[in-house]
Amino acid sequence: MHALVERNLGDKISLGGAFGLLHYLDYRPTFDVDAWWTENASTRDKEQVVEAIMAALIVYGQVRRRAFGDVISIELETADSKKTFSFQIAERSAQLLPSMRYSTMSKWIDATLYPDVDPPDELVSLADRVDFIARLCAAWDFGLVPDKATLDEIRRPEWQAAVAACQLLTSHTYHLLRRWHHLEPAPYLGQKLGYIRDDPNLAYI
Predict the structure, then answer these.
(1) To which H or E segment does residue 33 belong?
(2) Fewest CB within 10 A of the end CB: N or C in the chain?
(3) Per residue in 112-164, pLDDT tens?
């Protein structure tokens, strides 16, 4: 991935499979990368992508390139000719939504929190910030922990008004944000699970 970014080729593919989902959820180990060519990838672009991947892998062992159907597979093999890693890129028959570019977006804004709309480049208004807090809390409650850059941003004093206005009292995460911003404790209105509430070890957490 770093090799593609360094050569300004990151926008020529889109990632999928377990590696692509890793941005959202680390649900299983994988030794392969599945990707698709973007619509703006020219023949020359595709060759440069393949060359960059092969050059990055060659230091780890023997690399070969295979083509089958509409798929190009770059494969890394060990000394005993056993395949240990593959990077497969296929032609895409259809695209549900256009790829999102993050270059103009504030680095701390997590675009995955906006599956229903285009992610904003910046959050200036109170309404936009409250919406972001609500989205972040919903994802975090589900187990998707934000990046450090996002956490550093929302802990800044400038976010206190948005946290106070959000009033997402059913969210565990929201009450944590209130504590971070030194706001008065608010009643928790979410689900209270008995096996957690009555856990004798809870006092030590």
Answers:
(1) strand 32-37
(2) C
(3) 899 888 888 889 899 999 999 999 999 998 888 899 999 999 999 999 999 99
